[in-house]
Amino acid sequence: MSDFRRVNDSLSVSPQVSEADMARAAAEGFVLVINNRPDGEDPSQPSSATIEAAARAAGMDYLYAPVRGGPTPDQVEAVRAAVEAAGGPVLAFCRSGTRSIVTWSIGQAMTGADRQTLVDQGLQAGYDLSGVLPA
Question: Where is the Beta-lactamase hydrolase-like protein phosphatase-like domain (predicted)?
C-alpha cells in the first residue's frame, strides 16, 4: 500500500501506486489521479493503462503526464491545469513522488505562489523543493 503524502488541500503525492490503492484513494476523497511515471521504468511497475482502469473503475478521473528527468513547460502546465480543474483533491504519483511534487510546485510558482510556502509544503510532505524553485 502506497504512502499518500498530503501537500495541501488540493494535492497529495505518492510513490508508485498499485491497482488496489485506487479504491483507497477514491474512499479518501480523491477525484483525480495524475501519473507522472513513464511506462517501463521498472519491469515490476503496473502500466499506466492498468492504473487508469482501476482509477476510473473507482470513480476517479486520470491524467497520464509522464516526466523523464525534469518536467517540460507543457507537462508543468498540464498538471497545473488538471489540479486547478479537478474540483477536489488530487493524487499525483511517480516512482518516489519527487517528479510529481516538483512538476506541481513549478506550476504553482509560475502562477505567483509564494516560494517559501511551496518549500514548506514540500518539506511537510517529505520533499525538499529548496533547490528546485527559483529564489
Answer: 3-110
